[in-house]
Specification:
single chain; 135 residues; mainly alpha; 7 helices
Length: 135
């Protein structure tokens, strides 16, 4: 089980925003693309990272939104407080924890989550990032 107390407040805010995006798009579970879109929409420090990586271009954003719009939807309202994590999202967060431990961080920062996306084998988020030369 994931221990969200190991995540920084900022990382928890991004994950919460991703959960709200999942609910607003009526998706059945949170995918890494929801987290990426939450990062894109956020005006915090993640903006600097995404700008440096050239991920704030409209083409990349459109690809993320398109993927989210094609995820399975549910007809009943989704509770954004209930975290329904896909296997890819669960693995992403586990990788982020591992990355934070490698650099001896006590908490999982947003950087570790972003780095985890580049290491999430066989995932659509890694493929999207590879397409724009972020690896």
């Amino acid at each position: 089980m994931l221990d969200f107390d190991k995540f920084t407040n900022y990382s928890q805010e991004i994950i919460s925003s991703a959960s709200n995006l999942m609910a607003s798009h009526k998706n059945s579970q949170m995918e890494p693309e929801h987290i990426m879109l939450a990062m894109i929409k956020d005006n915090g420090i993640i903006k600097d990272y995404l700008t440096e990586l050239r991920l704030l271009n409209q083409n990349f954003v459109n690809k993320i939104v398109s993927r989210i719009e094609n995820f399975p939807k549910v007809s009943t309202p989704v509770n954004p407080q209930g975290l329904y994590l896909s296997n890819d999202t669960r693995r992403l967060l586990e990788i982020a924890i591992e990355e934070a431990e490698k650099i001896k961080d006590d908490f999982v920062g947003i950087e570790s989550i972003l780095l985890g996306m580049t290491k999430l084998d066989n995932s659509s988020i890694k493929a999207l990032l590879n397409d724009v030369n972020v690896n």
